[in-house]
User: Which sequence fits this backbone?
């Protein structure tokens, strides 16, 4: 197999979608391109070819799609000095334009993120939208963050007088949500906070990206008690849209505790409450639900301490009292369960719920389910004190940061979403991370339930105007540090945990690639020749080995939680992604002699990466016969 080159950009989403389509419908392709007539013929009657049909569009949608299709030529540079426990932590904090970052995360984290929470700009006219440029997104980012000489503001406001008030916001959101969909696992869930300004447009946009069938619910969140009193009706709420990746997604129930724990009875199995087996739907009865209408027999001689007595579906000398389902007016009703399930609950004494009889105040017996459920379904209105915006400000104040960030989301708001949608070892992504409430929620929930959830925070270097924390990313990193310090202090003096907590985070920063970028617009032949000479070494001047290693890994599809080990060969390292079970060998040496690599015992399946200039043609050909060879 001939040598290949390490990718210099992120994958083209268009190419990958075309490959997937060609796999599904090969007959729709001719000479590598889609034949639209064949594609339509293949799809048959499911194609909507009506001249007037429902669609959702806006000014600039085409450019938003083009922006999504531009591969990123950026990279993520590790910042060890700004991290906590860089070599051991699995948590990530990434500084940079979230669109470019999402493109970089696309290949390594495709289908791996269980839950996404974002709190994007609400588009009130006073906040900001990202000034995307489909011609060169990275160049725009570098200008706006002062990494290039040309001046530019970090973000641009989106006033209603701009003429494309909603369109600019939708164009900003579309490519980011599209990539978010790709990153979610098949059972993943996304929560998006929003208010009245864009909630309806956001719903339509997410219908398009995620599919209308994957809309789960709209949660109304009581954001404050007093409301916006300057309005004629005081507004006290915001929204959270919830979409799932597919029908495999599952929203969990919440654990009962404190005020919502109604299990006030107990027996030899444990705590329980009771609820009648009779179906309370007035439309159901013997006539239209005959399978739910049957007698149950009570043994009234065997009462326990709470006045309950056993039941049976068979009448005999002991079980002689016959009970039919009747409503409160004595009319025929029906049970909630068919006979088969009722018998199962009577026969099994250790299952979650079973059935008993109890005499009512009226004298007749009722049939009750021993209800042992310790969870409850979340409702679509969240009005707890712990989700109100003021709580978020108070929480920042507790760690001394409330003066630096306005309107942070409360920790419990996101923690509740985490409890509904994640398990103990899931990955959580927030790419509008702000002050990093999501990171705090993940760390605290892990401590509460012993989980190993991992977070990925992404935030643009938005200026704050204060000297101590000049950008929002500085506030976010400092918040995580202070929360971690407080959590460590809370456990000071206690016995070590059986499973160590991950209370760290790796910092990465969006930056230009370590690979030289070819400039097609050379003014003359001399400059063109000079550039060609420079490309004898594909790496930029002043490159750092660790930076190159992470870029190679990212663009090969490896996650950022790498392990790097030395090998028996000096200068050769083994890079592994434990989550994916993949690894490759890499050396950045200027020259390689094949005999030096013999201790590696390279096989056909091993990936070996080196600089193109390190091997002559004969050595490259021989090495490519031994293993999968890629060059930089």
Assistant:
């Amino acid at each position: 197999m001939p040598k290949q080159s390490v990718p210099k950009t992120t994958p083209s989403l268009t190419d990958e979608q075309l490959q997937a389509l060609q796999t599904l419908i090969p007959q729709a392709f001719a000479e590598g391109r889609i034949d639209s007539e064949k594609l339509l013929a293949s799809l048959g009657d499911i194609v909507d070819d009506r001249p007037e049909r429902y669609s959702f569009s806006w000014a600039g949608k085409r450019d938003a799609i083009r922006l999504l299709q531009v591969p990123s030529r950026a990279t993520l540079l590790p910042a060890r000095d700004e991290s906590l426990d860089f070599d051991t932590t699995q948590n990530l904090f990434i500084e940079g334009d979230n669109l470019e970052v999402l493109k970089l995360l696309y290949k390594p984290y495709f289908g791996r993120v269980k839950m996404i929470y974002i709190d994007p700009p609400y588009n009130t006219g006073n906040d900001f939208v990202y000034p995307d440029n489909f011609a060169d997104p990275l160049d725009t980012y570098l200008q706006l963050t002062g990494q290039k000489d040309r001046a530019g503001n970090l973000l641009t406001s989106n006033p209603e007088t701009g003429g494309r008030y909603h369109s600019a916001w939708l164009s900003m959101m579309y490519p980011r949500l599209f990539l978010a969909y790709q990153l979610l696992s098949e059972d993943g869930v996304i929560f998006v906070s929003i208010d009245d300004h864009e909630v309806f447009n956001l719903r339509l946009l997410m219908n398009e990206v995620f599919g209308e069938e994957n809309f789960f619910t709209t949660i109304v969140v009581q954001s404050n008690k007093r409301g916006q009193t300057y309005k004629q009706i005081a507004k006290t709420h915001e929204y959270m849209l919830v979409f799932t990746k597919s029908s495999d997604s599952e929203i969990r129930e919440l654990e009962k505790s404190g005020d919502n724990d109604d299990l006030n009875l107990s027996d030899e199995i444990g705590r329980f409450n009771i609820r009648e087996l009779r179906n309370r739907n007035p439309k159901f009865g013997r006539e239209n639900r005959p399978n739910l209408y049957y007698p149950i027999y009570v043994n009234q001689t065997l009462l326990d301490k709470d006045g309950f007595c056993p039941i049976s579906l068979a009448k005999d000398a002991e079980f002689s009292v016959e009970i039919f389902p009747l409503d409160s007016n004595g009319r025929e009703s029906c049970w909630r369960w068919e006979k088969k399930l009722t018998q199962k609950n009577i026969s099994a004494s250790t299952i979650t719920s079973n059935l008993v009889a109890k005499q009512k105040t009226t004298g007749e017996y009722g049939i009750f389910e021993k209800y042992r459920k310790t969870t409850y379904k979340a409702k679509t209105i969240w009005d707890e004190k712990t989700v109100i915006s003021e709580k978020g400000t108070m929480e920042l104040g507790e760690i001394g940061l409330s003066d630096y960030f306005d309107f942070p989301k409360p920790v419990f708001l996101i923690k509740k979403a985490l409890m509904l949608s994640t398990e103990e070892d899931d990955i959580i992504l927030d790419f509008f991370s702000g002050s990093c409430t999501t990171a705090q929620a993940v760390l605290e929930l892990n401590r509460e339930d012993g989980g190993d959830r991992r977070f990925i925070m992404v935030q643009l270097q938005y200026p704050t105007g204060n000297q101590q924390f000049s950008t929002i990313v500085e506030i976010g990193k400092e918040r995580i540090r202070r929360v971690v310090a407080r959590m460590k202090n809370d456990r000071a003096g206690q016995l070590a945990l059986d499973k160590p907590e991950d209370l760290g985070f790796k910092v990465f920063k969006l930056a230009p690639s370590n690979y030289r970028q070819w400039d097609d617009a050379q003014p003359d032949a001399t400059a063109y020749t000079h550039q060609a000479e420079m490309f004898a070494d594909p790496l930029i001047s002043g490159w750092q080995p660790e930076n190159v290693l992470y870029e190679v890994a990212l663009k090969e599809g490896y996650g950022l939680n790498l392990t790097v080990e030395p090998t028996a060969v000096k200068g050769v390292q083994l890079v592994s992604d434990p989550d994916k079970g993949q690894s490759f060998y890499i050396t950045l040496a200027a020259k390689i002699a094949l005999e030096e690599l013999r201790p590696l015992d390279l096989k056909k399946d091993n990936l070996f990466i080196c600089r193109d200039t390190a091997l002559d043609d004969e050595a490259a050909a021989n090495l490519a016969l031994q293993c999968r060879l890629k060059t930089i």
